[in-house]
């Protein structure tokens, strides 16, 4: 999704509401009259120029006999303006603040599902690996240099792995294991740590082998699912938040497909060990 995502999402919502209106047999003018709106309001919503309020959507659904779609439409509209946040905006005051902002989400989540096609999942990273990752981000996005503080926040966050009451299912593409972040020592230490974390009772670690047939489970952008409430997607330029139930189900399906072609247990450890040997 590009920087035009918000406008695209507004237009998609408007198109969906237009279809609901047409299916009901109402003209835009008739719907506006029933709702007590200026006749141009329906047009502005349907063309993506205006994001409807919760009340607008409930009125629209009621008059168009689409009450069963109300909550899904409301969730979609609420998510639009907050769904796409540029990394530069999130990190303009430094990386520490961006790390701290995520803490409440991690504390209240019970079931984490993570897919990584870029790097080792953040909760499973060593301090040295995280330092290398954040230094790259700092140079790329020209953020203030508060790497040590940001790393400390990230390491503190990992206490959730052993705090009880949380489950972690992680899927990692095998090529991530062979992508040297930092230097060889950093990477070998990270892979050894990944084996250790993968053995925790609360953790399910799957590795997607290179060369596995991809009938389904096509490689996609990295994402994390927080219970069934929210998905955070990592894009090159921005952070995408998904809360719309229909899109959440798409990520659930994708995660399940990727999980089906992953290997676990001793097979996963073997792939990690092979990566360690290749780096050494």
Automatic annotation (TrEMBL):
Gene3D superfamilies per record: lambda repressor-like DNA-binding domains
InterPro entries hit by this protein: Cro/C1-type_HTH, DUF5753, Lambda_DNA-bd_dom_sf
GO molecular-function terms, A-Z: DNA binding
All residue ranges annotated as the HTH cro/C1-type domain in the record: 17-53
Protein name as it appears in the record: Transcriptional regulator with XRE-family HTH domain
Source organism (scientific name): Streptomyces eurocidicus (Streptoverticillium eurocidicus)
């Amino acid at each position: 999704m590009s920087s035009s995502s918000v406008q695209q999402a507004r237009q998609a919502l408007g198109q969906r509401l237009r279809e609901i209106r047409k299916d009901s047999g109402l003209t835009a003018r008739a719907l506006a009259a029933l709702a007590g709106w200026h006749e141009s309001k329906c047009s502005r919503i349907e063309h993506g120029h205006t994001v409807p309020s919760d009340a607008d959507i409930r009125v629209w659904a009621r008059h168009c006999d689409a009450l069963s779609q109300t909550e899904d439409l409301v969730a979609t509209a609420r998510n639009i303006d907050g769904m796409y946040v540029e990394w530069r905006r999130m990190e303009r005051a430094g990386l520490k603040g961006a790390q701290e902002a995520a803490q409440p989400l991690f504390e209240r989540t019970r079931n984490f599902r993570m897919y990584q096609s870029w790097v080792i999942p953040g909760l499973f990273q060593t301090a040295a690996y995280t330092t290398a990752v954040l230094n790259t981000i700092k140079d790329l996005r020209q953020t203030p240099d508060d790497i040590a503080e940001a790393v400390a926040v990230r390491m503190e966050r990992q206490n959730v792995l052993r705090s009880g009451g949380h489950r972690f299912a992680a899927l990692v593409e095998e090529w991530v294991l062979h992508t040297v972040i930092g230097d060889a020592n950093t990477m070998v230490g990270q892979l050894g740590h990944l084996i250790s974390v993968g053995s925790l009772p609360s953790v399910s670690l799957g590795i997607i082998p290179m060369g596995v047939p991809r009938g389904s489970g096509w490689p996609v952008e990295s994402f994390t699912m927080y219970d069934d409430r929210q998905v955070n997607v990592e894009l090159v330029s921005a952070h995408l938040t998904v809360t719309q139930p229909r899109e959440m189900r798409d990520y659930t399906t994708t995660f399940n497909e990727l999980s089906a072609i992953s290997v676990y247990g001793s097979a996963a450890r073997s792939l990690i060990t092979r990566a360690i040997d290749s780096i050494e």
